[in-house]
Amino acid sequence: MGKSSFHYVVMSIRAKMLSMHDMFYGPAEPIFVKKPPTEEEKKQAAAKKEKEEYSILKLIPDYPYYYAPTPAPAPAPAKKDEKKEMKVTLKVDICCDECSEILTIAIKEVKGVKAVDCNVSKEKVVVTCAPDTSPDSVILAARSEFRKARLWADDD
């Protein structure tokens, strides 16, 4: 065994054999006492503090009262509840993309219709239109191509 391995063995044995006092309270730790500052240190600290106060207070005097108070803005007038668009949901017996194209063309001929979204798997058609467009006109356009078109019910 080399010198370093012997030292390692001795250290590991000592680590296992602590006295009860060392185990619970540990070795005494050093205490650091701060001495009072000298006159020269006091002068340096005062000069540094004065320099900091000068630089901050001269740039922004009386902060946070530096800015003049402004009156609160007037409340915005209440806007009318104008619907920009309306959605009409239909149940139409469509089976393929070709049927959805035929239906889309027929419904887009109605005045005020903006978009038509067809879901073939659910047989659901969502029509986005202007609020003045009547749902009956949308249903009639859908029935011109697909006879059993109707409004979407919650149980569909």
Automatic annotation (TrEMBL):
Domain HMA: 85-150
SUPFAM superfamilies given in the database record: HMA, heavy metal-associated domain (SSF55008)
Highest taxon in the source lineage: Eukaryota
Annotated protein name in UniProt: HMA domain-containing protein
